[in-house]
Design goal:
By secondary structure, the protein is of the alpha+beta class. Helix content is about 35%, strand content about 15%. Strand 20 (about 725-730) and strand 21 form a beta hairpin.
């Protein structure tokens, strides 16, 4: 074949026309491709827009969840927790593998195979949202997504992290993918079981195990594991505490899923379904253990580190609290206030059931409150106060018939003799009740407590009327909540550790801490400050003669006259200083303050520990300026330590979540410390100079005088402990405040009793030695008893050793001069060497005109 034309022309044949079906397919392909490009563009845009708002978590080292503060007593016992999220981090190797499988079975059966997101479920959720914009966005969240959601809540707000929105889903998906890319499945499970909310403020499996079952997570049974695993989606709906039936159904579902996945056998499933679980309600530790102490620690930590640190930074706070001492102090305060309340009188019934219908309604409601249903009978607990309705009396008016939620009882006259109408000007023992019908009426609602004949026979008010106690029937005594308040504070003086603190009668009724926050007049408890100033500045001794006779001060500025009085309105002439302090006489203290000078008295108060404002007036000598127990106990700690001022601490040590020590006030002999820590503490102490604020001889002489005040004077009740005790009572005008501040060699304790508002006095004859000192003795006698041996014995406290330069001399107690040989009344007193008396007391067998009663000591003003 030849070609004559050098240019060849090829004709392309025309394509056959597209069928309708092919045309539609092409359009669909274009749409899909465009949609894919658009979707990819949107995904990239969404990632670029929201990725910066998602937290980075490259490894478990970046995981720092909110962990609250935990507070421990001196023995390591947990006494309080403060947190927004109560979480106890636990490593993965301490979590039972079966518990992890329970969560996988309940929440995400494809956890080990998916890449973090259930694409089909989430796409379906988005499609549903597009079709129905008004409906809530739903989704099939994986465990990884749940972890992501929880972490977003931690790094932002809970509302943002849990809102049902497309934005939240995008941020959650981004973080879920990051987690899957950077962490192993076990790491993600670790985050999940430590991060997840499981109800009742419990975050993570360890916190939930402690809360619901009071166990460590490693000790859970299969049924308990299934219960926790069932809480993940809706903790409130499946709570074993508030919704036990729903929790049981959910537990059975989880156990079935575990069986279906091959994690447990059929027998294990069936056993777990019928196991009876013991579940506990949430218990706020700080309300049940030592609430005033724990709350004081919380305040201090917030002041130093801020509230956010306390709630989120995982602080571990090691305190000086001795739980045994604190509980004994609480009990002693309660007993003392109840005893005082009975001396004050009965304030009347709580209510009056005037009609049978009211009585029936009261009975029904009270039975419900006590948890009684149907024909359940009430089991009386020995130390619990119950509400009772008065149903009748015997013919003589000696027995009250009562009904306690359907439980009958009898209350004899001997168990309520104290129930006179309150009158602070009259003693209760002069106005005992003689007929119960004069106090109560049928239908009255009262508080009662179980008792028996032996208890009544020992009761201060009831023993004289023991004949009124019936020989048959269950016996009860009349009770009412005291209206007075009390406080106690105990310090280990050598270390400065505050080992116990009670700020009031009932923390739940009032969290006001009267041991720290209340500024009250100390009365004669201030006198050691005045006397020690005189010993230190003016070289006063136990034998220095002080006048006890009337004083009158006129103030020309306001034309006011002040005539300070003594208790009992009596004056005793000239007395040795020791007797003035022992009997806590007011006018000698004022004369001493005048001799020392008000400015020097205040200066001495400041160096001993008083920080509150002090009035520049002579009344300061008898406690006219208010102060706190916290300040006042510093004074007694300093005297106990022979003039060395100790810093006092509730908190021994604070450590953050990483183990860094934020503050450390431990002493080298603290038994909780390791050897290295003890050496560190000893080194710190060497670098801290001793703060000697008062001469040691002066301090010892003051302590020896206060010992005599306990042995022979107003504080005698404190001598009943069996220990060597030094201390001072304090009572303010009209008995609004009663104090006893006292110490052994190893423990310093203050007790205060009074009303929060000065609207009523404590009552006639109520004073430091009668009202506060018995509480002090009750507490200390128990606290310083060693029950680890049988029979129990006193813990050795020893005596106060005099420093060099102090001599001991036999003197006549009435005059303060040297005691005559063979004199029957002789006491031994301490003096600085060279300051002891040199004259002998006058011979009482010979009349001396100077001894006549020229001041009329026995004549009231």
């Amino acid at each position: 074949m030849t070609v004559s034309d050098p240019q060849m022309h090829f004709k392309i044949p025309a394509l056959p026309p597209l069928t309708p079906w092919q045309r539609r397919l092409r359009i669909a392909a274009v749409i899909v491709a465009s949609g894919a490009v658009t979707f990819a563009t949107l995904v990239v845009a969404a990632y670029l827009a929201y990725a910066p708002t998602v937290p980075m978590l490259n490894s478990l080292n970046d995981y720092h969840p909110k962990v609250g503060a935990t507070i421990y007593a001196a023995d390591g016992q947990l006494i309080g927790e403060f947190a927004e999220e109560r979480r106890v981090l636990v490593p993965i190797d301490r979590i039972p593998p079966l518990l992890l499988k329970a969560f996988v079975a309940a929440e995400d059966k494809r956890f080990y195979t998916h890449g973090g997101i259930d694409l089909i479920g989430n796409l379906q959720a988005v499609a549903d949202k597009v079709r129905s914009p008004t409906k809530k966005l739903r989704g099939a969240s994986t465990i990884t997504q749940q972890v992501a959601r929880s972490l977003l809540a931690t790094h932002g707000s809970y509302e943002e992290a849990t809102e049902r929105s497309l934005v939240r889903k995008i941020r959650e998906a981004i973080l879920a993918l990051r987690l899957e890319a950077r962490l192993s499945k076990d790491d993600i499970l670790y985050l999940y079981v430590n991060q997840i909310f499981l109800g009742h403020k419990a975050y993570g499996v360890q916190a939930a195990a402690e809360h619901y079952f009071r166990k460590n997570v490693g000790d859970l049974t299969i049924a308990e594991m299934a219960t926790l695993a069932g809480l993940g989606q809706r903790p409130s709906d499946y709570s074993p505490v508030s919704r036990p039936e729903a929790a049981l159904m959910r537990r059975k579902y989880v156990l079935r899923r575990m069986f279906e996945e091959g994690f447990i056998s059929k027998s294990q499933m069936e056993k777990g379904e019928v196991e009876q679980l013991v579940v506990y309600p949430r218990n706020e530790l700080y309300l049940t253990m030592s609430p005033y102490y724990t709350e004081q620690v919380r305040r201090e930590i917030i002041d130093r580190y801020g509230e956010r640190a306390v709630l989120e930074d995982g602080l571990q706070i090691y305190t000086a609290l001795n739980i045994e001492y604190d509980i004994l102090a609480q009990e002693a305060i309660a007993r003392g206030l109840h005893a005082l309340d009975k001396r004050q009188g009965f304030r009347g019934p709580l209510a009056q059931l005037k009609t049978p219908a009211l009585k029936t309604l009261f009975l029904q409601k009270y039975r419900e409150e006590l948890g009684l249903t149907g024909s359940d009978e009430l089991k009386i607990e020995p130390n619990k106060t119950y509400l009772a309705a008065v149903t009748g009396f015997d013919e003589k008016g000696e027995v009250v018939k009562i009904d306690i939620a359907g439980h009958p009882g009898l209350m004899p006259l001997a168990a309520m003799r104290w129930a006179r109408t309150p009158d602070p000007t009259e003693r209760v023992d002069m106005h005992y009740v003689t007929d119960v019908r004069r106090v109560l009426k049928i239908g009255d609602v009262i508080g009662v407590k179980h008792t028996d004949r032996d208890q009544i026979a020992k009761d201060t008010h009831g023993w004289e009327a023991i004949q009124t106690v019936p020989k048959e029937g269950e016996l009860f005594k009349l009770e009412q909540e005291p209206i007075a308040q009390g406080a106690a504070l105990t310090v280990d003086p050598r270390s400065g550790y505050v080992v116990a603190e009670v700020g009031g009668y009932n923390f739940e009724d009032s969290s006001f801490n009267r041991a720290i926050q209340a500024c009250r007049e100390p009365g004669s408890a201030f006198k050691p400050i005045v006397y020690s100033a005189a010993i230190d500045k003016l070289d006063y001794t136990a034998s220095t003669q002080i006048e006890d006779k009337p004083l009158v001060y006129d103030n020309p500025d306001d034309a006011m006259r002040w005539k300070p009085d003594n208790a009992g309105l009596k004056f005793k002439g000239t007395l040795p200083l020791r007797q003035c302090l022992i009997d806590s006489i007011n006018t000698p203290a004022i004369r001493i303050a005048e001799a020392v000078g008000i400015e020097d008295v205040i200066k001495n108060a400041r160096r001993l520990g008083i920080t509150t404002d002090l009035k520049r007036e002579l009344g300061i000598a008898i406690g006219s300026s208010c102060t706190t127990m916290w300040d006042l106990i510093k004074v007694y700690v300093t005297l106990n330590q022979m003039g060395y001022r100790r810093d006092m601490h509730f908190i021994r040590r604070v450590v953050d979540r990483f183990g860094n020590v934020l503050e450390d006030h431990t002493v080298s002999w603290d038994p909780a410390l390791t050897l290295t820590q003890q050496l560190d503490s000893a080194y710190r102490r060497l670098l801290t100079p001793d703060n000697q604020v008062l001469d040691n001889q002066t301090a010892f002489l003051m302590v020896s005088l206060m010992k005599e005040g306990v042995e022979f004077g107003t504080g005698q009740y404190a001598s009943h402990t069996g220990h060597v005790v030094a201390g001072k009572t304090g009572t303010t005008n009209d008995a609004f405040d009663a104090w006893f501040m006292g110490f052994t060699t190893k423990l310093v304790t203050g007790v205060w009793v009074g009303h929060d508002k000065k609207e009523r006095p404590l009552g006639v004859n109520e004073q430091g030695g009668v009202t506060a000192a018995p509480i002090w003795a009750d507490y200390i006698s128990r606290a310083l008893m060693d029950y680890s041996v049988s029979p129990a014995k006193l813990k050795d406290q020893g005596d106060f050793e005099p420093p060099p330069g102090i001599v001991r001399v036999a003197i006549d107690p009435e005059t303060g001069y040297l005691a005559r040989p063979n004199k029957t009344r002789t006491v031994y007193e301490y003096y600085r060497a060279g300051s002891e008396p040199t004259e002998y007391a006058p011979d009482k067998s010979v009349f001396h005109s100077k001894q006549s009663d020229i001041y009329g000591v026995d004549t009231p003003l």
